[in-house]
From TrEMBL:
GO biological process, alphabetically ordered: arabinan catabolic process; xylan catabolic process
Pfam families attached to this UniProt entry: CBM_6, Fn3-like, Glyco_hydro_3, Glyco_hydro_3_C
Protein name as it appears in the record: Exo-alpha-(1->6)-L-arabinopyranosidase
Signal peptide: none
Keyword Signal (UniProt): yes
Role this protein plays: Catalyzes the hydrolysis of a non-reducing terminal alpha-L-arabinopyranosidic linkage in ginsenoside Rb2 (alpha-L-arabinopyranosyl-(1->6)-alpha-D-glucopyranosyl) to release alpha-D-glucopyranosyl (Rd). It is not able to hydrolyze alpha-L-arabinofuranosyl-(1->6)-alpha-D-glucopyranosyl (Rc).
Top-level taxonomic group: Bacteria
A GO molecular function held by the record: carbohydrate binding
Organism placement in taxonomy: Bacteria, Bacillati, Actinomycetota, Actinomycetes, Kitasatosporales
Length: 939
C-alpha cells in the first residue's frame, strides 16, 4: 500500500491570501534561518524546499552586468521622450529579457534595482544620466510607467519587482557617504518626496533603496521617513534594500554609531530589510544581527518584520507557485523599440533651417564620438551597435559621408630616444566577438597580452583629452592603453570602464618633458627591461611628438562637405559618473578646438551633443544644435533618421540647460526654494529652458477652457499641426500662484501629453488636475495648504514657450498664524533662514537647527500668534552658544545661553523672561556650536 503524500503546507497553496502564506512560511523558519535571509544573498532552506534568493539586479535602461542584452537610451534620455507609454513598453521589454536571461542563468535576479527617481536638481551631479528630470511631476510620470512595465501585466504575479533608488535627497557624489543634505520641510514635501510618493502610490513598486548620504545629519539607512512617509503610501509590503556597503558606512566612514551591532540593529528597526554588504559573504551581517539580538538591541519580532517584507516580494514573483514566465530576449520588437526610444529622445535645441538635410548633401561627420557607441556603468553588453558614422553611412551612403575623428595623434619618446611601441596583432581571435569586434569583457584586465615596449619608430597613439587633463591613449587597432593588476601597461581595453577606470592618464610637466601618471593607480609610467609599467619610483620623462592635431583632420573633412556634423559629448566613465561629480558645464577644450576648426571652414556646422548631462555651449554660430543622451544600441540610426527628416525630432529637455557655471548653486545646497534652483525657481536666463525642443513642423494652440469643480481643475485646449510633415508635439500644462502667501514656483508642471499629428491635423487635449496640485506645505501647521485666490493656468511648448494663458480662482483658507502659545516653534519649521543647517535632533527622529560654520545663523518665523500675551520663553538646546529672540526687526528681547558639553543629543531647556502679545514675526539668532530643537512660550 502506497503511503499517502504529506499534506501541502499552506505557504504552497496559491488559493490562500499572500499574507497568510507569508505568515505560514515565516512560522516554519528558525531564528538563524530568518537572520540568514537579511543579507542580499539569502541561502536556501532545503528542508522546506525554499531556494536561495538575492536582492538586486541592475536594470536602469536594460538588463545590466549579465552579458548581452537590449540596451535602451540612458534614463535621462528616456526622460527626454516625455512619453510614459513608450517608457512603459521599454519596462515590459526589460522585464521580459530579465525573465528570459534568468531561465539561462540563475544569477540573474528578479528584484530589479530600478528606476532612479532622484531629481536632477544640479546638472553637475555625476549620476545625472541615471535620473529622469529635475521636475518631480515628470519624474514620477516616467518612473511610474517604467515600474508598471517592469511589474508586468499579470493580475497576480509580478514579472520583476522594481526597487526605487535612492532614498532620499541624493544629488552629489562628492563625499557622498559623509555629506548631509540640509532639507527643510517645504523642500522635503514639495520636492524630494514627491517623485517617490506618486510612483509608490501608483502601485507597481516593490521597494526602495536608501542613498549613501545623510539627510539633516542622519544617514538615510536609519531614516525615520521610511516609517513616517514611505510605508504610509501603500498597503503593500515594501522591501527596503540597503545600498552596497552602506550598512558598514554607518560606523566606518560616518561614525554615526560606535559598533556595527548598534548600526545594524538601528537600520533594521528603521526599516532596512535586506543588507547589501561584503559582497556574497553574508557571515559578517548575520553575525552582527545575531550579536545585536543577544545584546537586546533588537527582537525576533524586528527580524520577522524584515523577513516578512522580503517573502512578500518573493511570493508576488511567483517563486512558491512554480509560476513560469519564459520572457523574451533580443526580439525584433525589442530592437525596434530601442530604435523608437532613441529617436524619441533626440532633442533639437536650435535650427537655422539647415535641418533636415537637403537631399544629396555631402556630410562630414567629425568628432570624438562620431564613431562611438558609449556604454555607462549600468549598461548591458551590446548585441547590436550603431554609431553616428554607421548610421549616416547606412542612411546617406558611404560615398556621401566624410569622416574625421579629430583625435591628436602622437608618439611618446623616452629619455633614451626610443618610442613607446604597441605590438600589433596581440589580440587573438578568441577575444573577438561577432563581426570581429573586440570583446571588452575578455580584454579588460588581461595579463596574458604583451606589455608595451620601446623601439626606434614606436607606435602612433590616438590621444584624447576629456577635460580636467584626463587623457586616454589608443593604439591604431582601437585598443586603449590600460593597466592590469600586475602593473604593466597594455593595449588591452575596448573602452574605458570599470568601477576604477584603468584607461585614463595625465601628462604632467616635468623639466623639458612630461611624466605620464596613471589615474587608476596614481602611479607614474616607467620603462623597464621587461616592459612598460607603473611604479612608485623611476618615472620616465616623455616627449609628446605630435604627428597631427585633430583639428587639422577635422578642417580637411569639413572643407569638402556641404554640411558638417560635429559629434561631441562625454565618455560616461570619465569626468562625471558614479563616485565623481563634474566640475564645469563647459565642453572639454579638445572638443571646443574641433568645433572651432569645423566652423572656421564651413558655416553649415551642426553640433550633436551625445552626453549624460547638459553642457553650456555657445550656440550663436551653429547652424543647428541637437542633444541626445547616450542612446544605447540604436544611437546612430536614430540620429541619422532625424538628420534626414525621416523622423521629426520631438524630444524635450527634462532639465534646465544653464548658460554658465555662475548660474549654478553650490553642489551641496539642496534648498531649491531659498536657492532659487531648477526651472521652478530660477530667475536668470537659461541657455535652454526646461521642456524646450524644436520640431520640423509648427503647432498652434487654441480654445483654452477651464472649469473648477469641488476637487479638481478641468483644462482643455486644442493643438494643430500647421506644418508640412507629420510630427509629435509635447503639449505642456503649467501653473503659477498669482499672489502667494509664501514663495512659490515661477511656474510648475501640472501635466503633459505627447501627441502625433499629421499636417493640418487638430486634436483636443483634456486634463483633470486635482486641487492638491496647487497646494504647498504649510510649515506653520505641518500640513498641505491651498491658498485662496488667483492661479495662472498656462499651456505651451515649454516652460518658457507659453502659448495660452488664463486665470482660475480657487477656494481655500488663508494661512492661519502660528499658535505659538500652544505649539511653540519647532526649529526646522522656519519660513526663512540664513547661515544655518538642519541636523538630527536625535539618532532616531526629529530635526534641529545649528549655525553653519563659525558664523551666526538667523531663523525667521512669520505670523506668530502670542494670543493675549506670554511672559516666558524656553529653548530646547544641546551644545554651547546663545539664542537671541526678537520680534520683527526689534532688538533682542531675550538671550538664552547654553553650556552643555555632554554631546550633541544631550538637550537641556533654557528659560528667560519674554513679553509679547498679538501676532508678530519672530526672529532667532543662533551663535556657537549648538543645536536648537524647539522654542516654547508660556505665561
Amino acid at each position: 500500500m502506497t503511503a499517502p503524500s504529506p499534506p501541502t503546507p499552506p505557504f504552497r497553496d496559491p488559493r490562500l491570501p499572500v499574507a497568510k502564506r507569508v505568515d505560514d512560511l515565516l512560522a516554519r523558519l528558525t531564528l538563524d534561518e530568518k537572520i540568514g535571509f537579511l543579507h542580499q544573498f539569502a541561502p536556501a532552506v532545503e528542508r522546506l524546499g525554499v531556494a536561495a534568493f538575492r536582492t538586486g539586479q541592475e536594470a536602469l535602461h536594460g538588463v545590466a552586468w549579465m552579458g548581452p542584452a537590449t540596451v535602451f537610451p540612458q534614463a535621462v534620455g528616456l526622460g527626454a521622450t516625455w512619453n510614459p507609454d513608450l517608457v512603459r513598453r521599454i519596462g515590459e521589454a526589460v522585464s521580459r529579457e530579465t525573465r528570459a536571461m534568468r531561465a539561462r542563468d540563475e544569477r540573474v535576479g528578479l528584484n530589479v534595482w530600478s528606476p532612479t527617481v532622484n531629481l536632477l536638481r544640479h546638472p553637475l551631479w555625476g549620476r545625472n544620466e541615471e535620473g529622469y528630470s529635475e521636475d518631480p511631476k515628470l519624474t514620477s510620470a516616467i518612473a511610474t510607467a517604467y515600474t508598471r512595465g517592469l511589474r508586468g501585466e499579470h493580475p497576480t504575479y509580478w514579472r520583476t519587482a522594481p526597487v526605487l533608488k535612492h532614498w532620499l535627497a541624493h544629488n552629489n557624489e562628492t563625499d557622498r557617504d559623509t555629506s548631509s543634505s540640509s532639507i527643510h520641510p517645504r523642500v522635503l514635501h514639495e520636492y524630494d518626496l514627491r517623485a517617490f510618493q506618486e510612483t509608490v502610490e501608483a502601485g507597481a513598486v516593490a521597494g526602495v533603496m536608501p542613498a549613501y548620504n545623510l539627510v539633516n545629519g542622519r544617514p538615510n539607512h536609519v531614516s525615520p521617513h521610511l516609517r513616517e512617509h514611505l510605508r504610509t503610501w501603500t498597503e503593500e509590503e515594501l522591501l527596503v534594500c540597503s545600498d552596497a556597503g552602506a550598512p558598514s558606512n554607518l560606523v566606518d566612514s560616518e561614525h554615526y554609531f560606535d559598533t556595527h551591532e548598534e548600526a545594524t540593529a538601528a537600520s533594521l528597526r528603521a526599516g532596512v530589510d535586506s543588507f547589501t554588504d561584503h559582497g556574497t559573504d553574508s557571515s559578517k551581517i548575520t553575525a552582527r544581527v545575531r550579536k545585536a539580538y543577544e545584546r537586546g538591541l533588537l527582537t525576533e519580532a524586528d527580524v520577522d518584520t524584515a523577513v516578512r517584507r522580503q517573502l512578500s516580494v518573493r511570493f508576488r514573483l511567483g517563486e512558491f507557485d512554480d509560476h513560469e514566465d519564459p520572457g523574451a530576449f533580443d526580439t525584433p520588437e525589442h530592437r525596434a523599440l530601442a530604435q523608437e526610444a532613441a529617436e524619441q529622445s533626440v532633442v533639437l535645441l536650435r535650427n537655422d533651417g539647415v535641418l533636415p538635410l537637403a537631399p544629396g548633401s555631402r556630410v562630414a561627420v567629425v568628432g570624438l564620438l562620431a564613431d562611438e557607441c558609449k556604454l555607462d556603468w549600468y549598461s548591458g553588453t551590446l548585441i547590436h551597435r550603431s554609431t553616428p558614422l554607421e548610421g549616416l553611412y547606412e542612411r546617406f551612403g558611404a560615398e556621401r559621408v566624410e569622416f574625421a575623428e579629430g583625435v591628436d595623434r602622437i608618439r611618446l619618446r623616452t629619455s633614451t630616444g626610443l618610442f613607446l611601441y604597441v605590438q600589433e596583432g596581440a589580440a587573438s581571435d578568441e577575444v573577438r566577438g561577432a563581426e570581429g569586434a573586440l570583446d571588452p569583457a575578455l580584454l579588460a584586465g588581461r595579463t596574458d597580452l604583451p606589455p608595451l615596449t620601446t623601439d626606434p619608430v614606436g607606435t602612433e597613439l590616438a590621444l584624447v583629452d576629456w577635460g580636467e587633463g584626463l587623457l586616454t591613449l589608443r593604439a591604431p587597432d582601437g585598443r586603449y592603453l590600460s593597466v592590469a593588476e600586475d602593473g604593466y601597461v597594455r593595449a588591452s581595453a575596448d573602452q574605458p570602464g570599470g568601477w576604477v577606470v584603468q584607461e585614463t592618464f595625465r601628462l604632467e610637466p616635468h623639466g623639458k618633458g612630461h611624466l605620464l601618471r596613471h589615474i587608476g593607480t596614481g602611479r607614474h609610467v616607467c620603462v623597464a627591461a621587461d616592459g612598460v609599467k607603473v611604479a612608485e619610483e623611476n618615472p620616465e620623462v616623455f616627449e609628446a611628438v605630435v604627428v597631427e592635431r585633430g583639428e587639422q583632420a577635422v578642417a580637411r573633412a569639413a572643407a569638402q562637405a556641404d554640411v558638417v556634423l560635429v559629434v561631441a559629448g562625454n565618455d560616461p566613465h570619465i569626468n562625471g559618473r558614479e563616485t565623481e561629480d563634474r566640475t564645469s558645464l563647459h565642453l572639454p577644450a579638445h572638443q571646443e578646438r574641433l568645433l572651432r576648426a569645423a566652423r572656421a571652414v564651413n558655416p553649415k556646422t551642426v553640433l550633436a551633443l551625445v552626453s549624460a548631462y547638459p553642457y553650456a555651449v555657445e550656440p550663436g554660430s551653429l547652424a543647428a544644435l541637437l542633444w541626445t543622451a547616450h542612446g544605447g544600441q540604436a544611437t546612430g540610426t536614430a540620429l541619422a533618421r532625424i538628420l534626414a527628416g525621416d523622423v521629426s525630432p520631438a524630444g524635450r529637455l527634462p532639465q534646465t540647460w544653464y548658460a554658465s557655471d555662475a548660474d549654478l548653486p553650490d553642489l551641496l545646497d539642496y534648498d531649491v526654494i531659498g536657492g532659487r534652483q531648477t526651472y521652478l525657481y530660477f530667475e536668470g536666463t537659461p541657455l535652454y529652458p526646461f521642456g524646450h525642443g524644436l520640431s520640423y513642423a509648427s503647432f498652434s494652440y487654441g480654445d483654452l477652457s477651464t472649469r473648477v469643480t469641488e476637487d479638481a481643475v478641468h483644462v482643455s485646449f486644442t493643438v494643430t499641426n500647421i506644418g508640412g510633415v507629420t510630427a509629435d508635439e509635447v503639449a505642456q500644462l503649467y501653473t503659477r500662484a498669482v499672489d502667494p502667501s509664501v514663495p512659490r514656483p515661477r511656474r510648475e508642471l501640472l501635466d503633459h501629453r505627447r501627441v502625433t499629428l499629421g499636417p493640418g491635423e487638430r486634436t483636443e487635449l483634456t486634463f483633470e488636475v486635482p486641487l492638491s496640485a496647487f497646494a504647498f506645505w504649510d510649515v506653520a501647521h505641518g500640513r498641505w495648504h491651498l491658498d485662496p485666490g488667483l492661479y495662472d493656468v498656462m499651456a505651451g511648448g515649454s516652460s518658457e514657450d507659453i502659448r495660452l494663458r488664463t486665470t482660475v480662482i480657487l477656494d481655500g483658507d488663508p494661512v492661519a498664524p502660528r499658535a505659538v502659545r500652544e505649539r511653540g516653534l519647532d526649529a526646522a519649521d522656519f519660513d526663512e533662514q540664513s547661515g544655518t543647517g538642519i541636523v538630527d535632533r536625535t539618532r532616531t527622529t526629529g530635526d534641529a537647527v545649528t549655525p553653519a560654520g563659525d558664523r551666526a545663523g538667523e531663523l525667521l518665523y512669520r505670523a506668530c500668534d502670542f494670543g493675549t500675551g506670554v511672559t516666558e520663553v524656553t529653548a530646547t538646546v544641546a551644545g554651547e552658544g546663545t539664542v537671541e529672540i526678537s520680534l520683527g526687526g526689534t532688538p533682542p528681547l531675550a538671550t538664552l545661553t547654553a553650556d552643555t558639553s555632554s554631546g550633541p543629543y544631550a538637550y537641556t531647556t533654557l528659560t528667560a523672561e519674554f513679553t509679547a502679545e498679538g501676532v508678530h514675526d519672530v526672529r532667532l539668532r543662533l551663535r556657537g556650536p549648538l543645536r536648537l530643537a524647539h522654542v516654547g512660550f508660556s505665561g
